[in-house]
Each structure stands twice: as structure tokens, then as C-alpha cells.
């Protein structure tokens, strides 16, 4: 029986993803945060003011759960809400100065952890990995 490379690729991808996610989760928890808190702050830190929908799409957390996390982060004064003047249904979320200071401290350390995870790959291998994952992801979207 021949080796099923598609199945093997899938299994290796899932195991690798799980391992990396666990390392990232462990790093984020060192800073007293949950992954959902960190990913929302990180999105606002790098992209600026966003709507709840934009954040939800960026961090892959559903809008029902994201509201709870935003409430918690707002209570901690790490982000704030503001209403859209053109459309009252739209609420913008932005990082506060306190949130920015926290991310200024945490993010470089977090980025270093990610760089360590991928340190065994050359830049060319990283570029190839990115292209292959994008290609597989696009195939997955068309199969639905």
C-alpha cells in the first residue's frame, strides 16, 4: 500500500500546529494573560482602531465570545470603545495608552519566542512554508 502523502501532510500540520500553539499559550500565560486577551490586544496594537467584526475576523474568535473578552479588557483599562458618528450600530475598539504600554513591554518578548520556534528554518524555508500553507488554505476554502 502506498503512503498517502495528503493524509500524512495533514497529520504533521495538525501536530505541528498543536505544538506551536501550546508554546505560544505558555508564553502568553507567563504575562498573566489568556490567549484571547492577547490576540485582541495584539490586533489593536498593530492595526489600530477596529470594529468588533474586524477584530473577530482577524483573531478568529466568534463575535459572541469576543464581546466578553472586550468587556474584561475594557474593565482593566487596556482598551476602550467609541461609537461611530455615521452609523450608531458600529462600535470601534481601540487600545488605550495603558494597553499600549503593556504591549510595548510584552510583544518584543513574545516575538522572540516565535522567532525561536522557527529558528531551525532558513529564511528561504520560511518563505516556502508560508507559500505552501497559503496554497493549502486556499484549496481548503474552495473545497467547502
TrEMBL record:
Coiled-coil stretches noted in the UniProt entry, renumbered to this chain: none
Matches recorded under InterPro entries: HTH_MarR-typ, MarR/SlyA-like, WH-like_DNA-bd_sf, WH_DNA-bd_sf
Protein known as: MarR family 2-MHQ and catechol resistance regulon transcriptional repressor
Pfam families reported for this sequence: MarR
Keywords: DNA-binding, Transcription, Transcription regulation
Gene3D superfamilies recorded: Winged helix-like DNA-binding domain superfamily/Winged helix DNA-binding domain (1.10.10.10)
Signal peptide from the UniProt entry: none
Domain of life: Bacteria
Record PROSITE patterns: HTH_MARR_2
Domain HTH marR-type residue range list: 1-138
The keyword Glycosyltransferase belongs to this UniProt entry's keyword annotation: no
